[in-house]
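Morning!

This is the sequence you dropped in the shared folder:
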Amino acid sequence: MTTSLVPFRTDERETFPVPFRSLRREMDRLFGDFLGGDGDRLERFAWPSVDIVEAKDNLVVRAEIPGLDPKDLQVSVTEDFLTISGEKKQETVRDETNRYLEERSYGQFRRTFRLPSWADPERVEANFKNGVLELTIGKRAEAKARTVKVKTA
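The structure's back. Tokens below.
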């Protein structure tokens, strides 16, 4: 699935008009029931939480991916798209006879974003620390704002 960059909205009412909010909640519940779990939990794992911020000279993408081994993480950048994918592998289960709750998720995930035209796919840096992947994507030189001095005649 491809997601375009859009301004952040803090209110669910702006994101989903009234008739669609209840539809979304019902679909989450339906898929959660069908797949044998909590639909919200499934969605949180399938789509790591991401912050995208435009700075003066770059675009910064931060994705929360706790419990992932960095060797199981892939980042690819093309002219138009940024893709973050990986797999969180399940730990070996020990013989624990009194299990009370299991909420941690395991499996593959993939998230793709369309990059703005000014992003330079050749200038990407990636850091992974404390379960947060931070990508810094530079702007093309021609896209950076420049100041033009006004001359008087």
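Headline: The chain has two domains: 10-46, 49-89+106-139.

More detail when I'm at my desk.
O.
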